[in-house]
Write a structure and sequence with these properties.
The protein is of the alpha+beta class. It is about 35% helix and about 20% strand. It is elongated, with a radius of gyration of 18 Å. The termini are far apart.
Amino acid sequence: RGIFDNDKQTFLVWVNEEEQLRIISMEKGGDVLGVFKRLAAGIKAVGDSVMAESGKGFMLDEKYGYVHSCPTNLGTGMRDSVHIYLPGRTAHGVDKLKARS
């Protein structure tokens, strides 16, 4: 079990957590396309490495999609999230935030 990351900590591979393998791409800022492209390239690199090492690919079912140990992730196996900083939200409360608009 472990996490392997790049020097910038923008790409991580988490082994044996909730799933057997979790591949993560993240960074601060608004470059969503760049994050996605890095993720796609990373998934391909990991998949190619697994195939070269074991001769097997990621488990894909024609009906259910990619097979995981966590049934809530059945299908594409992809989950994304965006964290947004709302200045003043926690420091000054909702009323101050509403007054700014």
